[in-house]
Structure formats: C-alpha cells, structure tokens
Write a structure and sequence with these properties.
The structure is a single chain. With 614 residues, the protein is of the alpha/beta class. β13 (318-320), α13 and β14 (338-339) form a beta-alpha-beta unit. Helix content is 44%, strand content 13%. It starts with 6 loop residues before the first strand and ends with a helix.
C-alpha cells in the first residue's frame, strides 16, 4: 500500500458548523493516516448584516489560534483565514490569495506537507487561484450543491465552477442532476450522495441508554426532523400539517438559521435546538416518523438530503416532499419513502405509516442505509483516487525540461503578464498620488481650540517609521500649543521602551525646553490606542478635564477619534496632529515604510471594529 497522501481540503462550511460530509470524510481520512489541512469556508457571496456574528466568530477563532491554524485531532488541522469578504472583487481576491497563499505555503513548508491532494467543496475564484498556485498531486472537486441557485448573489460563481469541472482530475457529485451538469465538462464524474456513519448509528440503536430528557417530555407519536432550520424548510407545510394533526408532536432538532417565530407559536411543534452530532442517533431512534419537509426550488432540485440515510439507519420510516433526489432514491429502492406534496398529502402519508407500525419495512430501510454507509463510499472514493494517481504517474513527461515546466506551472505569457502587472503597480503606487488618496480618509481635520489639557499619544515609531524619532515632533507640537496658551497641562501617554521609557524622554525634553514640571504628567504601561483612551479617560475624570487637544500622527487620528467616541463620549477631543510630518508630505517620495503604515492603520481599524472597540 502506498503511503497516505497529504490532503488540502477547501471546505464550503466551517469545521464547527453542523456536522456534514465535509467533516466526516476528512476526519475519516485523518484517522487512516492522511495528514489533512481543512480550510474553512471563504464564502460564495458578499457579506450581509446578519453575517456580523459569523465574522466576529471567525476573528475569535483566528485570534485564539496560531495565525489561523489549529489542530483538531491527530493528523487533522484547520485553517480559519481572515479575508476580505468580497468573493468576486478583483482587488479583494488579489489581497486574499496573496495572504492566504503565503500562509498556506508557510504552513506546508513548516509541516513538510508537499504535493498534497487538493480536494475542494468550494468552487470560488479564490479557491481556484489558490489551487493554481499550490503544487498538488491531484485535484478533486466534490460538487455537493448548486451554489449558483442558493442566493442571487452567488450566481457569479458559475465561471469558476465551470473551470473546476474542466480541470479536476476527479469530480464527485451528490445528485443525479449535478451528475448531468458535471458530465458536460468532465469524463471522470462519479455519483456519491452524502452517506451516514452507519456503524455509529447502529451502535447507538443497540445502546441501552434511555430517551433524552427533553424528548421524554414530548408525547408520542413523534414526527421528527434533524438538521438546520433554514430557508429551504417549508414552514407553511409544517404549520398546516401540525394544525390538522394536533395529536402528533412535531420535533425539530437542529440550529435555527432563519426566523422561526411562527413555528414556535404552534403548541405541537417543539424546537430542541442544535445537538452534538454524536447524540443525534439517540434522538432519531425515538422518532415514530422522520420527515424531510423541503420546499421545491431550483436549489433543492439538486439536493440529496443526508438525513434520509440517518433516519433509515435506525429503521425510521420517512415522509418527504417530492424532491428529485428522493424520487430517484425511491426508484432505486422500491418506494421506501412516502411522498407528500401538500399538507393534506403529507398528513395522509404520516397517518398511513403510523397505522402500519414502526417495524413494517424496517429491514429494507436499514439495508438501504447500510448501502450508503460512509465507510463504503470513502473506500470507493479512495480506490478511484489511487487509480487516478497511478495513471497520472505513468503518463508524466519523461524529459526533465517538460517535467520542470510542469512542476513550476510557468508559461511565457504568464511571465509577461506578471511583469506588466508589476510595472503598472509600481507606477501606480510610486509615481501617482494613489497612496496619499488611500491614506486621506485616515486623517481627521485639524481643529485647534482651547482645552483643559494637551494629550500626546506617542506610539514608538509614529509617522517617521523609526523608533526615537517621532516623539520629538510630537513634543514640539505639544509645546507650541502650550506656549500659545491653548491648555495649561500636558499629559504624555506611551507604552514604548527601548533603553528609557519614551514618556520619560518626552517629559525630560519638555522640562529642558522650559515647561514647569507641575504642568507635566505621564502615563506608561499601556500598549495600544484602546488602552491609551481608557487611561486618559480615568485621568480626565480625576482631574475634571472635559476638553482635550490630542497630538498624535496624522494617519492615526481617525482610529484615535473613533476610539474616543466609543469609549469616552463624555470627553470633547480636538485634533492637533504634527503639522509638518514627513509622512504626509506629498513632495517626499513614497516608501514601503509609508505604505506599510497606511496598511497598518486600516488593519487596525478593522481589528478594533471586530473587537467592538470602535
């Protein structure tokens, strides 16, 4: 047997989302000895307001991990990248592929993770870019959904998905309709509907443990559903069926992904929320009937509901709406699933199954689930993968030059394009006002008015980009304001130390230039702008200061202003940044240090927003 190949998986869901085939397959392969890097979802559409919680959650995971990388179990690692959430923007795509590509290559180098199998569930332009830039042994596209039909905004995914379908060495699909579409692009298309952890479900069925407490409080007969309560669940159908059968208890086990108030208003509909995947069998085995109440749409026309196999693994009879994939399943399995298009038909199907008893047809249902066990499907996938790798190895170019070109993936026209792009980028950045135009929103207009005190934020490197240089400009600005009589006190705030505390140096310089020590004070030990503002707020409360003149670098005024507004709204801040900073002098040449300063400030604003500091 060959050594297990490393696998780089680009997922269309996050690792801690509802357990699905993505996690099942990769977890199984990791247990078999394959080293797996699971890259979490980078999105198929632009962000919405309701996505803010997901963005914050992603940031929290990134913050807790090592540059976004963390280990789940032996051989299995997860990457939670921080990206710009605009999947079809050229600029965002360039930034994202640069950052992610660099991070992935660094991790792969560190982990000795060479020439992996690239396995993607996500056919976005960004994923395509990354696959093209990472040398890999094989490319697999597992097409599990019609992403273009999921939302209007996701329709732009089709061109990159078409490229994946053409370029993949193997294409796996979950439904017959997806098989037909994929076969128009690729000869190596194989039907693999999502399966079930049959052995785990069988073990749960035989376990003597009792009914979950919350299920025990719900009377029989129990009509059960497991999975996300999402936009494809037909709530009207559920409500109408529940009202016409008040003697049935409808039990929904899964996370609420859309508004469900109407369901909660029905006395015989019970929402139990999301449960750990390993506990689902203990809920399902106490269902009398399992249901698949999906709406019929262009999207669900391509959906194979995984829960069908999960119900059948425990012998539970099933009623479903006439989804094309369920109808195809019935043709292969002698009409095992009862069908109901309307609430009346759905109700009659439930009545018939409950009258027939739980054991009628149970053996056939269990056999159908066993045929769809993940262990079988993954084994079949692995056979295809090994055969395809062997075929590729036997057809590799023998000549060393051809093999080198294949390894580097470089073609002359791409070299020319990259060179031209680099030339244009250099001209745009270094020979036009582009950088200054981008930097301008970081500035808050100068407003110098009398105040209770002058506060100097010293950040160690400031606008000069070099330690021990910027504080002199800021002290000079503060002293100019002081000598103009605009404020009677000066407060220096800094957490930077080289040999001496920066605040000590500023105090000493101010005293040497004639400011009485009684008019000077300092705060040290703070590390960032947020801490600066909190410390100044406390000092201002003690001193009774209500109006402050703030001296900092010009490009830092926006972040400082927003932080004050959010965390110290009772203080009026007038901005008086260093007026003659070399950083903002358009007559001075642009340098990488200045570009880095601008990017640092924008990243700082984004980070503060994620943390709720602005």
């Amino acid at each position: 047997m060959p050594d297990p190949e490393p696998i780089l998986c680009f997922s269309s869901i996050d690792w801690d989302f509802i357990w699905q085939g993505h996690q099942e397959i990769m977890s199984t392969l990791a247990k078999q000895g394959h080293r797996v890097l699971f890259v979490e979802n980078t999105g198929v559409r632009g962000p919405r307001l309701r996505d803010l919680a997901r963005i914050r959650h992603r940031y929290a995971k990134w913050h807790r991990s090592t540059h976004g990388f963390w280990q789940v179990e032996e051989n299995l690692y997860v990457y939670s990248p921080l990206i710009l959430p605009f999947p079809y923007s050229r600029w965002a795509r360039w930034i994202n592929r640069t950052r992610m590509g660099s991070a992935l290559k660094q991790w792969m180098l560190t982990m000795d993770f060479h020439a992996p199998i690239c396995w993607t569930f996500l056919p976005t332009p960004l994923t395509l870019d990354l696959v093209h830039r990472i040398p890999h042994k094989l490319l697999i596209y597992y097409c599990i959904d019609s992403f273009a039909d999921s939302t209007p905004a996701a329709g732009r995914i089709l061109p990159s998905e078409d490229k994946f379908l053409r370029e993949a060495d193997l294409v796996f699909v979950t439904s017959e309709s997806l098989f037909k579409r994929a076969s128009g692009f690729n000869r190596q298309v194989h039907l693999f509907p999502f399966g079930v952890s049959f052995e785990a479900f069988l073990k749960a069925a035989e376990a003597p443990n009792g009914i979950p407490e919350e299920m025990g409080k719900i009377p029989s007969p129990r009509i059960g559903y497991v999975g996300g309560i999402h936009q494809w669940v037909d709530q009207d159908l559920l409500i109408e069926t529940a009202r016409s059968h008040p003697e049935y208890a409808f039990v929904l086990v899964g996370p609420e992904q859309v508004a469900v108030e109407r369901l909660k208003n029905e006395p015989n509909i019970h929402l139990l929320g999301q449960k750990p995947h390993e506990s689902l069998p203990h809920y399902i085995k106490h269902f009398d009937v399992g249901i698949i109440p999906y709406r019929l749409t262009d999207y669900t026309n391509n959906v194979y509901p995984t829960k069908l196999n999960e119900y059948h693994a425990l012998g539970i009879p099933v009623v479903s709406t006439p989804l094309p994939e369920v109808m195809a399943f019935n043709r292969r399995n002698t009409q095992l699933v009862q069908i109901g298009r309307t609430s009346e038909e759905f109700g009659r199907a439930l009545e018939g199954l409950l009258r027939g008893g739980h054991d009628a047809g149970k053996a056939d249902r269990v056999r159908s689930a066993e045929a769809n066990a993940w262990s079988r499907k993954i084994g079949e996938m692995q056979d295809l993968i090994q055969r395809t790798i062997a075929e590729r190895e036997s057809s590799r170019p023998a000549h060393w030059a051809a093999r080198l070109r294949e390894a580097f993936g470089i073609r002359p026209r791409w070299v020319m394009r990259l060179g031209l792009a680099a030339l244009l980028g250099f001209f745009l950045i270094f020979e036009t006002p582009f950088v200054w135009t981008i930097a301008e929103p970081l500035r808050v207009p100068q407003e110098i008015r009398p105040a209770d005190a002058i506060v100097v934020f010293a950040g160690g490197v400031g606008e000069s980009g070099q330690a021990d240089e910027s504080y002199q400009e800021r002290v000079k600005q503060a002293l100019d304001l002081y000598h103009q009589g605009l404020a009677p006190k000066i407060l220096f705030v800094s957490g930077f130390t080289r040999t001496f505390h920066e605040a000590d140096l500023m105090m000493a310089l101010a005293k040497n230039l004639g400011v009485p020590g009684s008019d000077l004070s300092m705060e040290i030990g703070v590390t960032n702008t947020y801490d600066y503002v909190l410390q100044v707020r406390e000092t201002a409360r003690k001193q009774g200061w209500r109006r402050l003149l703030l001296v900092t670098s010009p490009y830092h005024t926006r972040r400082a202003d927003l932080t004050f507004r959010r965390n110290a709204p009772e203080i009026t801040v007038f901005h008086a940044p260093v007026p003659q900073s070399g950083y903002y002098s358009r007559g001075e040449p642009v340098t990488f240090r200045k570009i880095r300063g601008v990017l640092h400030e924008y990243l700082g604003l984004f980070s503060y927003w994620l943390r709720g500091w602005i």
